[in-house]
Description:
Blueprint: E1 6-9, E2 17-23, E3 26-37, E4 48-55, H1 63-79, E5 88-98, H2 103-117, E6 126-133, E7 143-150, E8 156-162, H3 171-196
Parallel strand pairs: 4-5
Antiparallel strand pairs: 1-2, 2-3, 3-5, 6-7, 7-8
Amino acid sequence: MVPQRILETGVLGNSDSSARVEYKGSSVAVSVHGPVDSKNQAKGYNGVTVDITVRTPSGIPGTRERSFEESLRSIAQRCIKSTVRQSFDVIITFDIVSESQYLFPACVIALMAALRKSTVPLQDLAAASVYNFRLDGASSNATSMELVVSMKSRNIMFCRMTGLDNYGTNLSELTAIAMERGNEERQVQLEYILKSVSGPTKPW
């Protein structure tokens, strides 16, 4: 049985915008505060500062959470629209409730839905997919590729590979396969992200 996928926005009252996602065994809530006047404006800095925190049920962040924060910050910054005349901060907090292999895509879906619901100016949206496959001669080693793709340019914003470094395989070919196989899932994500702004979406 395929785990249910649920997307809701406006679920947290103590934020400017929020979203909750249950996606293939992972559950994540995200809150967005902002845009607020930038602390760096007085220093002559113009642009967007994105502050991201990833919290776990144990409350003890580790190397993985720090890596998630950097990756999610990069994705958010590429989606948020900034101008040379405006400077503002956006504060985003992720609370991981439960997790599976699909935790990072769940975070990306929640991030996009919360930003889309907020008043933060956007220039793009992103969607994520995970493609699992086995390489020839690697019957005992599962391999996977996570992709986050711009919905505007269709370019890859983020790519993470697991179990592929030990094989002399053409990575560009594998990336092309992962892009193609995950296209339908990413399109469905985008549809639900856009629908979630108007209210709760049906499980998909």
